[in-house]
Amino acid sequence: MDTFVPRLDERFSDPGARATPWAVTRRALEEAQLFWLTTVRSDGRPHVTPLVAVWLDEVLHFSTGPDEQKAVNLAGNPHVVLTTGRNEWDRGLDVTVEGEARRVTGRAALERLATAWAAKWDGQWRYRVTDTGFAHDGGGRALVFAVGPAKVLAFAKGDFSQTSYVPAAAAGS
């Protein structure tokens, strides 16, 4: 059963367009090579940066060094947007995930995530699990964050459509 139910926004879709099925959007999140993370600085200015992320258990996960600007921003404001897609006008699917970034510190969860990163990236992203996040072989540390989607949007191109997703539990009520 799908976790999220698609709803076509006809205002921003071609006539006759159909909502993008959740399975298609989920696959885009699972397979994406790169995401753009938007955080908010303490003075309200946005900060956008590319990073790799892992979709696991219907949640998007990313990591960052504790002294990086995005970690500093998240300490003051956990609201984020992660975006992925194609840099082309007329083909592909762009997806945005909005939510709050929450630290992941449980060792079992971090072990699963380290395994997921290594599998997704054919071993190019290998982390050692610590009590507070990940460690790199070169000695660097990384905090790990989970973003449970508060809002997901998919923008299909070619046959243009905008689809929003609501949790299946909320759609049935």
TrEMBL record:
Record's keyword terms, sorted: Oxidoreductase
Pfam families: PNPOx_N
Stretches assigned to the Pyridoxamine 5'-phosphate oxidase N-terminal domain: 26-121
InterPro entries: F420H2_bilvrd_red/Heme_oxyg (IPR052019), Pyridox_Oxase_N (IPR011576), Split_barrel_FMN-bd (IPR012349)
Span of the signal peptide: none
Gene Ontology annotations for the cellular component aspect, listed alphabetically: cytosol
Gene Ontology molecular functions: coenzyme F420 binding; oxidoreductase activity, acting on the CH-CH group of donors
Protein name per its UniProtKB record: Pyridoxamine 5'-phosphate oxidase N-terminal domain-containing protein
Organism field: Planobispora siamensis
